[in-house]
Amino acid sequence: MLEPAAPDAQVEMRARLRGELQAAGFEVIVVTLSSSEDPRATGEKRARELQATAVLYVTQPSSRTESSTAASRGEVWIADRQLRRSFVLQFDPERKDEERSYAGVAVHAVELLKANLAELSIAAEEESAAVAPSPAQPIASPAPAPRESADAGGQRVGIGLSLHAGVAVLQGFQGLGPIWTPMLRLGASLPARWFGDGHFSLDVLAQGAFYGGEARVEGREGAALVRQSSAALELWARFAPTEVAQPLLTVSVGAYRAQIEGEATDVSRERSADTWSLSNGVGAGLWMQPAANLAVVAQGEVLVVWEKTELRVADQYVGTAGWPMLLLSLGVAGVF
Residue 154: its pLDDT value, please? Predict the structure, then answer.
């Protein structure tokens, strides 16, 4: 249902329509129009994005045959996208007959949509019967709402899940070289329509990177092998969620682990350590979703630990773990 940004004389008619549609089991998605937008063009565009059954909007009549020009009069436009038909219902609350009242027109609009759905159901049954005879099926009642789904750009009517698998490179800047590590993520995507204009959506993800390679740092009298792993809770903001290519910004909070094993010419001086610290990160990336259930995600993030770990070989400083780090990842996500 299209509605203007500012309230006008037709606000009661729209409220009646929303109430009758919801009572009949339809899900009503409200799209706000600016004064400069064309209702027909905007309605068709958003209906394709949201996979809507029909588009409704209330407007002043294009012409008047009555002598009165009361501001409360108007027309309800109904564009049925499945049958490719349009209907116009006029209302005039000043008239005494029920057919032109707010309530009467709202009920009539809902009955039209229900009749159209029934017609589609009958046509589908006749087509399937012509291909292969089958037992008669009862006419389906109107669906309570369009099926929750994702379009090619990833915008969902309901909450979706995603499972990511990929690889990451963890690069230190104070003595530690790059290491490769597997990475897994499990995420929940919040619907873009929760945020009004649908220009972005939010994802909440649990991330883990572990069982990767090891970095080696050397000193005059030995060396240290460093294994690193992390787990984090991430928040992603994806922009243009209806597009195939979606830029994203990320923030995270989690835990960082460094496992250090010392190597020395004097075996008695070899030491091992295992340190933990909380970590924070900020980053950016790109979500590419060429199909409804498949996405490829590339992301880069700068991580900083709360307590850094200094690496020393025989009292010689050779590097610092976790202060800061660059985490680069590439993965494939299944979207459900």
Answer: 42
